[in-house]
Design a protein that fits this description.
With 163 residues, the chain is of the alpha+beta class. Helix content is 27%, strand content 44%.
Length: 163
């Protein structure tokens, strides 16, 4: 489901992901190479017009992966080894956006955020179609895990660390 629908379906995890991604301005995207092996690359997320957009350089390796196979995972960037903010992961499909009006809205948002925007047609734009999501956090007392899917909804599990 598109971002706006995901936030409605799972507001607690959707709001957490949006806040974290907007604050960090960088996420990791996992794609599948032509030989089936994984690739992980940094990219900047933007929330525009009810979508989670990822703009990417023209014909970059991750773009070629996604054009061949749109399955991907987005992962928050850990702050350090202990990562007190936890890990946020979104799984689904990254779908290329070709509509020039939508691309224009995205470019306007980028320009407002960083005072620069890519020129048409020399970039790729993808929208995340969320299928599953997760959150994982460890601390000295417990491990906390949240998982969400449209079929099962949000499930939370906290278990104490073993001594």
């Amino acid at each position: 489901m598109r971002w706006e629908a995901f936030e409605r379906a799972c507001p607690s995890l959707g709001e957490m992901a949006r806040e974290r991604f907007e604050r960090d301005e960088l996420i990791l995207v996992g794609t599948i190479r032509a030989d089936g092996s994984p690739r992980i690359s940094p990219t900047e997320p933007d929330f525009v017009a009810g979508e989670l957009f990822l703009g990417m350089m023209w014909r970059s390796p991750k773009v070629l992966d996604l054009l061949r196979d749109p399955r991907g995972v987005l992962h928050s960037v850990p702050s350090d080894r202990l990562n007190p903010g936890g890990d946020i992961k979104l799984y689904g499909r990254l779908l290329e956006v070709s509509d020039l009006e939508v691309r224009g809205v995205y470019r306007d948002a980028i320009r407002a955020r960083i005072d620069w925007a890519p020129e048409e047609p020399n970039f790729h734009l993808f929208a995340m179609d969320v299928e599953r999501a997760g959150y994982k956090r460890f601390d000295e007392q417990a491990n906390e895990t949240w998982t969400w899917s449209a079929e099962l909804g949000l499930r939370r599990n906290t278990r104490p660390n073993d001594d």
